[in-house]
Design brief:
This protein has about 250 residues and is mainly beta. It has helices at about 30-40, 185-190, and strands at about 70, 105, 115-125, 125-130, 135-145, 150-160, 160-165, 170-175, 195, 200, 200-205, 205-210, 215, 230-235, 240-245.
Amino acid sequence: MTNSRLATPRLRRGYLAVGGTSAGRRRTAGLLLALGALLITGCGSSSSSTSAHAASTPSTAPTGSAAPSTQANGPIGPEGVPLEQGAELAPASTTSPSRAVDGVHCAPLEQLVYHIHAHLQVYVGGQPRSLPAAIGLIDPVGEQTPNGPFYGALKGGCYYWLHTHTYDGVIHIESPTRRIYTLGDFFDEWRQPLSTSQVASAKGTVTAFVNGQRWAHSPRAIPLVPHAVIQLDVGSPTVPFSTISWAGTGL
C-alpha cells in the first residue's frame, strides 16, 4: 500500500497492497485425509504446492454428486474477484484483540512462508450475505482503489494469519509455517459461532459445499486449502453452488 501509516506498504496489480507453534500436529488424521479431495491448483505462491499430501477417503471427503453451479457476479473488487452482495454476516470488529486463537497469532507484518487463498460465500434463507473486510486485522485502515476499499493494518496494529482485505469473500491464509487451517479456526479468530446450526448470527440448518461438492461433516472442519471455494447455506432454500474464477486475479 502507498499509505505510510500501514504496516506493509507493498503494492500489487498497480494499486493493491497484498502481503506478503504449530497446533497442526494435533489435527485429526481424518481431517488430513480429506485434503486430497479438495486440493486444486495453488495460488501462484510456491508455498501452496506443498500444503498437503494425503489422499481422501469417503468418510471424510465431500460426498454426493456435484451441485448445480452458477458463476458469481457483481462488480469486480480490488482483488479481481466479484464483491459479495447482501448485508454483512457480522461486523469485522469482533475479531479477537491481538491474542492467539487456536494457535493463530497476530503479527505486525503479514507472513508469507505459507501464502494461499480460499473463498467463502454464505446464503441465509436463500439470500446472499457478505463477508466483511478487515476480519483478522487489528487497527484496520482502508485505502480507496478504483474497484473499492482495500484494508490493511496501521503501524502498531497487526494481522492475524487468517484475514480479509476487502468485501469479496476471499480469505487470506498467510502463515509463518505450513499448516492446514480450517474454517473453524477463521470463525474462532473472528469470535463468531460456526456449527451445523449456526453461522455467525444466522441460525438454521447449515448445508455446506466445497468446490461444488456437498460437505457431509461439520463446517468447522472444512480445510482452507489453495483456491477452495466454500458455500454455506443457512436454512432453506439451498441455492445453486456459486463459484468464482481465480484466473487473472494473481491470488
